[in-house]
Amino acid sequence: MRRPPFMRLSAFALALGLAACGESPPPTTLAAQPAAAAPVAAMPVPPPAPPNVTDLVDARASSGESEMGRRGYAVSRQRGLTAYWWNASARSCVQTVTVNGRYRTVQPVAASNCGQ
Questions:
Q1: pTM score
Q2: 3-state class of 107 per DSSP?
Q3: What is the DSSP pairing of strand 74-79 with strand 82-87?
């Protein structure tokens, strides 16, 4: 009795699979290996940006100061036109840099910048 072609193929695949059970897996090439990320120990990664202050970029500094206060931030320290704002409830420190009377930078920084 002759078997249909799909059954012959299935029997061949089964035999091939069983024959490979006792063998070790084929060696992998370097291209198949994912690249390991290099550790970055010298540059600490800042915390993610608080979602409630990034909209203040390009705001007038006088308005930005009032708005930072309304959002729970208080000036922790100031050096020239750079201010560090601490939000105790969110435990986040934000740096603002003023240029020509406007906030040019509003970004999260490490809590140590705010004395925490």
A1: 0.57
A2: strand
A3: antiparallel
